[in-house]
Every structure is written in C-alpha cells, then in structure tokens.
UniProtKB/TrEMBL annotation:
Keyword check for Lyase: no
Top-level lineage group: Eukaryota
Disease resistance R13L4/SHOC-2-like LRR domain: residues covered: 546-873
Name of the featured protein: (wild Malaysian banana) hypothetical protein
Keyword Repeat assigned: yes
Gene source species: Musa acuminata subsp. malaccensis
Length: 915
C-alpha cells in the first residue's frame, strides 16, 4: 500500500517538474530532491512490501504512507492555485502582478511545507537502513493475457466433499410430509455452508420441484423491511408478474400480508443465508405460511443455537464438518497444481504440502486461499517459507481467527499494485455486489492502474481483477450469458479483513447507520468516505479537506439546500458517486471540484447539468444512466480526458414502445473527445455533422445511437469503419418505418462482440458474416423476409440470439450444423411464424424463450435432439401450443420430456404454470 501511495505522489511530482513552474526561488530544486528520494524508496518498497508485518517496519511504513499522502495533498493544492494557465498576455502586466500578490502568502506557505516534507523524507530514507529486510522476496507482477477467469471458491469447493451432504439435504427438501419444513445448515465460517446450499438451490431437481424460489442473505445488520421486499421482488420477478404498487413505502405488516397471500397456494423454497440472530427468524417466519404444499425454508448459520431454535416445525439440522484428510488433499491439489497435468503434487513438495493441508484443518476457504497463493510460488524454498509462516501464525488460535490470519497472509502476498484495488471493497457494503466495469473505472480514476507501453489502462485493470479472482480473494457474483464477468463480491470473512486493513492503512472510512446509531470512527485525515443511510448533517462537523472519494449508499438525507456548503469544501475530490441519492439538481459549480475524475448521478432525478461541467478538465467518467438529462452542455467538448459517457434511461413498463431507451443530444465538436471509449446513447436526429464527427473517436469500444435517419446511414458506416477497437454497437432508427441503412459498411470493426439493431432492415447486412468474434446478436423490428437469417448460422462464436418483431417469414428453418455455439435463443412477437425447425442445429442450446408468437402451434421440430436444453420458457403463447406440451394428454410432451424446466407465463393475467 505504501508503494502505491508513493506512486501517486511521484506522478504528481513529475507533472509539476515538467511544467517548470516557479513557486519560490529554489523551490523546484527542492521538489526535484523529494522526487528522487521517493523514487528510491519506491523501488526499495517494491522489494519489501510483502514483508510489512516484520518487526519495526510497520510503523516506518505508516509514516512513509502518511508523508506520501501529505505530498499528494500539497501538490493538489498547488495545482489548484498555480497549475492552471493564466492569460497574462491578455490581462497585461498589471494583472499578472496582482495575481502574484494575491497568492504570495499561499506560495510562501506551500514553499515552507515542501521544505518540511523534504526534511521528513530524508529522515525516513535514513531510517530504512535500520531494518534488516529480506530483499529476495520480490513480488512478481505476473499477467496472463487472454486467460479464462480462474475457478471461484464456490466452484472449487463444490467439486470436493459435498456429494453426501448435498444428497441428504435435497432428499429432505423434495420428499417427506407436505407441511412446511425448516432445514438448518450449521457450521463455522469458512466451512462452505453457502457454497453447499447454493449448489443445492441451483440443482435442476430442486428448481423443478418448487415453483417459487428466493435467496436472502441476512447478515448481522439486516433490516426486516428490506428482507421482505427482497423476497417479494424475487418471487414476482421469477414469475414475471408486476409488483404491487407502492411497495417501497409499505410497512412490515403490509409486506408480510402481501407475501402470505402470494404464497398461500404455492410450494416455495426460501434460503436465509448467514443468519446470525434468532430475532431475524422471529421477524420473518410469519411471512412464510405453513400452507401444506410441501414448502421448505433452508437456513445457514454459524451459530448452532440459532439453527436449532428455528426448528419450531418439523425439520432437520445438518452440522457441516471440516473436510476429511483425503478430500482436503484433493481440493488443495486441484488449486495449487492446476498448471500441472493431472494436478499431481511434485515429489519435492509432497511433505511441505501435507504439512500445509494439515494446518488448514479441513477448512475449504483456508485451503483454497493458501493453495491459490502457493500456485504462484516457485521453488521449494518459497513453499517452505510459507509453511513455516503458517505454523507461526496459526498456532493456538481459534479456528475463525485461523481463517482471518490465513487471509491476511494472502493479502500481504499481493503485489503492491493490487493491494489498493483489493481494499476498495471496504467502501461498499458487505453484502454488495459491485459491477466489474464500475470497479475498473474507479480504479483508473484513483490512479491505481499502471499501464505499460501498448496496453490500455482498462486492459490492465481487467488483468488486476482477474488476478484477484484467480487468488480467490474476489468472487464472481454474476456472469453475462455469453461468459464475461458482470459483477464481483468478496466473502464476508474477506470483507472483515479488508475493513480491518483499510483502518490500519487509513485507506477509507465508512459511516453506517445501524438501528438508530452511526457506526464508524473518524480517525485522522479522511481520504475516502462512504456513507450508508446517513444524512449530510453528520458531515458538517468533519474535516473533509483531504477527501479524495465520496460515496453515498442509501436514500436517507442529503437535502439539496445544504449540499452546496458540503461540496464546496471538497477541493481535492476525485470521485463523487451520488447514485440513487434523492436529488433533482446539483447546486454546486463544477469548477469548485477541479480534480474530479469520476462523476455519477446514476438513478437520481437530475434533468439538467450546468455549463460549468466544462471546467472539469480531469473528468474521465460521466455517469447519467437512469437520470432525465436529455442534452449535455456545449462546454462538454472541453473535457479532453473524458473516456466514458453514460447518459440514457430505459423504459420500464410492461409493453415498451419502439424506443426502449432515451439518449442525449451532444453539441458539435464531440469529435474532439478523442479519448472516449464508451458513448451511450447519442441522439443523432438533429445534425448529420455529429454522425460524421464520430469517425474521430477511434478509441471507442462501445457506441450506442438512437434516432438514426436513413440518410445518415452511409455517414455512420464511414465513421464506424475507423473504430477498429469497437466491441459493442447498438443503433436504433428514428422510427419503425425508417430503414436502418447500414449496407455500405465495407470493413466492420474486427473485434465486434455485441451487435444490437433496432429498426427495419431490407436485408441483413452482408458484413455481419465477417464478425467472427460476435457473441450476442439482438434484432428488433427488423421485418426480415423468409430464409434471410442464413448468414447468422455460420457465425463461429455466436452464443445468444434474440429476435423481437424481427422476422416476417412463416417458417424459421435452421440448417443442419448451424448455430454451433448458440446457448440462448429468444423468439418474441414473430407474428407470422408457423413453424420452427432446428433439426440438426444448435447442439449446445441451453435456454429457449418463445414469447407472443401467436401463429406458432407447436414446439420447434427437432427439439428432442437438443440434449443440452435445460430451460424452455413460454410467454403469452396460444392455449393450443401450451396444451400440446402438458404432461397429461399433450401430443408433444414426449418431445420435451428431457427438459428439466418448462414454464408457461401469461403476462396479462399474471398466471403461471409448470409444465
């Protein structure tokens, strides 16, 4: 961590020296001395950062870290006062003199502070020779390009030692009496309770047996109303039913009544994961009726008494045990020796490995963490050192503390450039999943990413994230259907470790409202602050002058009238995230936040931004998703460092119009923003010049366009041809009668992965056939003719295909051998469709959705050959179609009997049927 902090300070110093600005006589020489001394210390720390817990070094590192922070603060202040160019030639000599007199005191104060810091850095540098550091423990910076994300803890643990408990618990769930039953899985942290129960919850047999499912993570700081709302949301969303109105304002009694009515005739399964207190069960049990339908409640808890106390009705307690030695050894080898054929332990590491597995005492989390750490070690000496440290750390400590100590070892082993990225999870709530792309943007805005020649910062950030996943420090919470990571989280024990380290490092501070009290102590200078359901009144008495990042979680507090006074104090702020805050305007001139790099008003009610936005010269990300902003000020073209513009909101009703997303209008000159990588969604109906300017945005990776006119199609194609890095392209015509004119695109982006076309097409553009990396294709309102989808069948990597009002043919025929990689097929509102033939095609299809295809009378011909098909979902389909699939008397039931999940939905009447 100290090394990362020094790196930021060095970057600032380099920028200042290059500008060659004079503070006071000789001050720049002092800055150069500080820079050289810090560079020497940084190189030294790169070799010793892994050993920061050694005697004596911890305090030394803390002093160095604080000085590095002070340098960054000082340089930021310097840039505020003197780093911006002044138009002396226009103002004249007199104005220049007035400017110097005005800032004379500031110059003198900063000059004195620099000299003081110089002396402190020199003293710290002298002290480093007092410590006997092991310079052989250099943390290697290993990067693996184009690798698959390593197996998560969940996936690792499920392969070893869970067959028997899984079999027993599933039997308790699907067999036995029809009255409600509670099953508690009890065990200490790290044994894999959540892993086991998640595997059971996702099992096809369990999914098919229950017709309503909900998974709730309770945690220690639960709110009953939030848990009830979550259960209701999951039940209604699963059945694609509309939520009851005003649910967000209802009290507990009303929420319980809604749940009881909903569940009165359903066989449901509810998982209450991580239950800490019996009062949580007491608050929830009345919402889960004993309806004599065979419903089950599955609980995980670390506390045996809680597990037993929940068994008011007949049930079971399963006490999860540590892995036996053979299973523990198997799990260890799978993780530690994954690069070795057969994952066999080398003979020279056999004894050391057995010792390490023995110390882990059968705890899956400990085994996976240590094995992942060791998989990056080379040589017997490094393995022996790790084994000896384990013995020293784990001797005579409680098991839960053992896990924390093991995780701490894993943290200390992180390369210096990963520690600050890992600690960023301390900002988010424990149970929070964080979007992958959000993490990447935040890390870049903070300056955590060290890009190398030829690599973008985004690519390096992805490698950082993959490395943390590979080490089992971070878990993947959700994947996109086409395989990419969507969101991440950390295990609750790891989150505890992160919070602990964050306090030690003075990395971040969290103010959390629990019950009626605010948790979180304010110690020293605050540099990153997150508020969780706390109002701005608490912040008025806190020194925020050193704040770098500010996050708001929850909707309580922050009245508009007092925000101006608060944010006027945040001169050094880099990150401002007000997502979901109850605000409809921002009463602060953006020029008062000159260092801002990341600005998010996502899901607020803001509808307009001040022209002072153009003074945010360092802004990289502008997130307006879910707001009502329809036009960005002309001054946005001044933001030459802008990399991401997200400005749109989706229509959320049951029957979306032609425009499912409204975008924003941008001024002429948008082509000057040459660093842009994401632009969604741009409205192009106002000026053809905007379309032509897009050709200057050669760094774009994602582009979304709405309201494209037919005459602008050729110009857009010309611009798209220059975007060789484009990965995702979405375009919507100006109306459902306006053709998308995209045929003239001769050389499409070679790396395009996702393509979304909304609007009529005369035919599918021929260039689509060259998209060998395309994984997702969505066509809406295309009105394609019979047998016009042939070019899609040969796409080698297409995983997901969605057709909505996109095909006017009577018959959809897929040729034998076509769609080799397709996993998801979604057919919606194909009004003329009579037959679908998939005989010999789509061998890897896993999910099929058929929605409102009113002329379709029978399931696709050849569906019985789709042996990998796991789910068939039918929405608002004709009764004759559904009848043919029913178990009793259905003519086509035998064709689909191999599909574990078949469900029919009637959106209009909110009915639902298991088939």
């Amino acid at each position: 961590m100290a090394t990362a902090t020094l790196q930021f300070a060095l970057q600032k110093l380099d920028s200042l020296i290059i500008q060659e600005q004079q503070l006071l006589g000789g001050v720049n020489t002092g800055i150069k001395d500080i820079r050289d001394e810090l560079e020497s210390l940084k190189m030294f720390l790169r070799e010793t950062d892994v050993s920061e817990d050694k005697d004596g070094i911890k305090g030394w590192m803390q002093q160095l870290r604080e000085i590095a922070y002070d340098i960054e603060d000082l340089l930021e202040e310097y840039m505020i006062h003197f780093g911006q160019p002044h138009k002396y030639r226009l103002l004249g000599f007199l104005s220049k003199g007035i400017h110097h007199l005005k800032h004379l005191r500031t110059r003198h104060r900063i000059g004195v502070a620099i000299q003081d810091i110089k002396a402190q850095v020199h003293n710290i540098s002298e002290r480093r020779n007092m410590y006997n550091f092991n310079l052989n423990s250099i943390a290697s910076r290993e990067r693996l390009h184009d690798r698959h994300v390593a197996a998560l803890f969940i996936e690792e643990a499920e392969l070893v030692g869970i067959d028997k408990p899984k079999e027993d618990i599933i039997r308790w769930l699907v067999k036995g009496e029809s009255n409600q039953k509670v099953i508690s899985v009890v065990g200490m942290g790290g044994l894999g309770k959540t892993t086991l129960v998640r595997k059971i919850y996702d099992d096809e047999k369990v999914k098919g047996w229950f017709n309503s499912h909900a998974w709730i993570t309770v945690t220690q700081s639960f709110e009953v109303s939030e848990l009830l709302k979550s259960i209701i949301n999951q039940f209604y969303e699963e059945r694609h039913e509309v939520l009851p109105g005003r649910i967000e304002t209802m009290g507990d009694i009303q929420l319980i009544d809604i749940l009881r009515q909903f569940l009165q005739d359903k066989r449901y399964l509810v998982v209450l994961d991580d239950l800490w207190h019996i009062n949580a069960w007491d608050d929830l049990k009345y919402a889960l009726p004993n309806n004599d339908c065979g419903s089950r409640i599955l609980i995980t808890t670390r506390i045996g008494d809680v597990g037993i106390s929940c068994l008011e009705t007949p049930g079971h307690v399963y006490k999860l045990q540590p892995l036996p030695p053979t299973k523990a050894w198997s799990l260890f080898c799978k993780k530690a020796f994954r690069s070795i054929p057969g994952r066999v332990c080398p003979s020279e590491l056999q004894e050391i490995s057995e010792d390490i597995v023995r110390v882990c005492e059968g705890l899956p989390l400990a085994i996976v963490t240590i094995a992942g750490l060791l998989s990056k070690k080379e040589g017997v000496l490094e393995w022996r050192t790790m084994r000896d440290n384990l013995h020293a750390e784990l001797a005579n400590n409680p098991k839960l503390e053992t896990i924390k100590r093991i995780l701490l070892l894993s943290y200390n082993d992180l390369p210096y450039f990963l520690k600050s990225c890992f600690l960023y999870f301390s900002i988010f709530p424990k149970e929070c999943s964080v979007k992958r792309i959000t993490l990447i943007r935040l890390w870049i805005a903070e300056g955590f990413i060290e890009s190398e020649k030829g690599e973008t910062m985004e690519r390096v950030a992805v490698e950082y994230l993959n490395d943390l996943i590979d080490r089992s420090m971070i878990q993947v919470a959700e994947h996109y259907d086409y395989g990419r990571v969507r969101s991440c989280r950390v295990h609750d024990l790891i989150h505890d470790l992160i919070v602990l380290k964050s306090k030690e490092e003075n990395f971040s501070t969290a103010l959390i409202r629990q019950n009626r009290e605010i948790q979180g102590r304010i110690l020293g200078r605050i540099r990153r602050l997150s508020t969780h359901d706390t109002g701005e009144h608490l912040l008025q008495t806190i020194d925020l002058s050193h704040l770098r990042a500010f996050f708001v979680f929850g909707e309580n507090g922050f009245s508009i009238s007092s925000m101006g006074n608060l944010f006027n104090r945040l001169k050094l702020l880099k990150i401002l995230d007000l997502e979901g805050a109850p605000i409809d305007s921002f009463p602060v001139e953006f020029g008062k936040l000159p260092h801002l790099r990341y600005l998010s008003f996502r899901n607020t009610r803001i509808n307009k931004l001040s022209k002072s936005l153009g003074r945010l010269n360092n802004l990289e990300t502008l997130d307006l998703k879910g707001t009502y902003v329809t036009e960005l000020p002309k001054t946005i073209i001044n933001l030459q460092r802008l990399r991401h513009i997200l400005a749109y909101h989706y229509y959320t009703g049951n029957h979306p119009p032609f425009y499912h997303a409204d975008g924003v209008k941008l001024p002429q000159g948008i082509g000057r923003l040459r660093e842009l990588q994401k632009l969604t969604y741009l409205e192009t109906d106002q000026d053809s010049g905007i379309v032509r300017e897009l050709g200057n945005l050669t760094q774009l990776k994602r582009l979304g366009i709405v309201k494209l006119r037919r005459e602008d199609g050729p110009g857009l194609c010309t611009s798209i041809e220059k975007m060789e890095l484009l990965r995702s392209f979405s375009v919507t015509s100006i109306g459902m009668d306006e053709f998308l004119n995209l045929q003239s695109l001769k050389s499409p982006p070679p790396l395009l992965q996702r393509l979304y076309l909304r609007g009529p097409l005369e035919t599918l553009p021929n260039w689509i056939s060259s998209l060998k990396y395309l994984v997702r294709m969505r066509l809406r309102w295309s009105r394609l003719k019979e047998n016009s989808l042939g070019i899609l069948e040969a796409l080698p990597n297409l995983i997901e295909l969605t057709l909505i009002h996109a095909y006017d043919g009577l018959k959809l025929l897929c040729q034998k051998g076509g769609f080799q990689k397709l996993k998801i097929l979604d057919l919606e509102r194909l009004n003329n469709l009579n037959y679908v033939i998939v005989d010999g095609a789509m061998p890897n299809l896993q999910k099929m959705y058929i929605r409102s295809c009113m002329q379709l009378k029978m399931v696709p011909t050849g569906i019985e050959q789709l042996i990998n098909l796991k789910e068939l979902h039918l929405f608002d389909m004709p009764d004759v179609f559904v009848q043919r699939l029913r178990r009793l008397g259905g003519m086509d039931h035998q064709k689909v009997s191999h599909i574990p999940i078949i469900r029919s939905y009637d959106n209009e009447n909110r009915m639902y049927e298991e088939i």
